[in-house]
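Input structure tokens:
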């Protein structure tokens, strides 16, 4: 990577962090004018900026309004870059089916993770909140393979995470999907107990976990089951 390219990527990232939509769009146009790779501009520039935003959120520096403004800046810049991307097989996004499990309507954390996943290049199918196991199964059947992300903030609905994983298994879909869980009452130990592939304590950890699961998926290797 040349110093000039590196500088452009830093400008894109910083515009997102600074909630500077105009600056992000201007930097995106510069990427096109100078013949830089628009895909790299998204994954190594805008997405890295959004990951920093996620870190600021986790540290209590940014809150939901700031997250949304940063996301708008990123999205506007992506709209400039997308028409210039020549999709290659290795750029095919991994699908993440995301939702708050049945019985819970708390979705702020899930919404933040959705934004971060999209910034990281995943194709997110957001099922929303209070999602029954059957809806996750139906979405997984349609998607064919990928990742399922289960969220809850209520200890009383944690059991529905396990119920959803069991439903995926009974439908013959479990081996085709990595499963990650998140939410305050959950833990890595609970993830192992119910047969999930991992637990993300915060947005940063969720993205890192999704990237590990995606790497296994795109390599067409079986996802090791916990145990």
């Amino acid at each position: 990577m040349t110093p000039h390219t590196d500088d452009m990527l830093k400008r894109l990232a910083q515009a997102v962090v600074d909630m500077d939509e105009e600056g992000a769009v201007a930097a995106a146009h510069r990427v096109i004018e100078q013949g830089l790779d628009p895909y790299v501009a998204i994954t190594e520039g805008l997405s890295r900026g959004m990951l920093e935003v996620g870190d600021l959120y986790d540290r209590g520096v940014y809150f939901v309004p700031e997250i949304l403004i940063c996301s708008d800046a990123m999205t506007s810049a992506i709209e400039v870059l997308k028409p210039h991307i020549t999709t290659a097989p290795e750029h095919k996004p991994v699908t993440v089916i995301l939702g708050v499990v049945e019985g819970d309507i708390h979705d702020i954390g899930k919404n933040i993770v959705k934004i971060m996943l999209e910034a990281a290049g995943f194709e997110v199918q957001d099922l929303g909140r209070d999602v029954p196991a059957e809806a996750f199964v139906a979405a997984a059947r349609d998607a064919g393979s990928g990742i399922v992300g289960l969220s809850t903030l209520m200890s009383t609905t944690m059991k529905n995470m396990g119920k959803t994983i069991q439903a995926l298994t009974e439908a013959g879909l479990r081996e085709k999907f990595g499963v990650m869980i998140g939410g305050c009452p959950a833990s890595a130990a609970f993830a192992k107990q119910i047969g999930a592939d991992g637990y993300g304590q915060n947005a940063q950890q969720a993205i890192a976990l999704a990237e590990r699961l995606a790497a296994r998926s795109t390599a067409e290797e079986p996802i090791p089951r916990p145990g």
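The chain has two domains: 3-84, 93-218. Residues 3-84 form a domain with the Methyltransferase, Methionine Synthase (B12-binding Domains); Chain A, domain 1 fold (CATH 1.10.1240.10).
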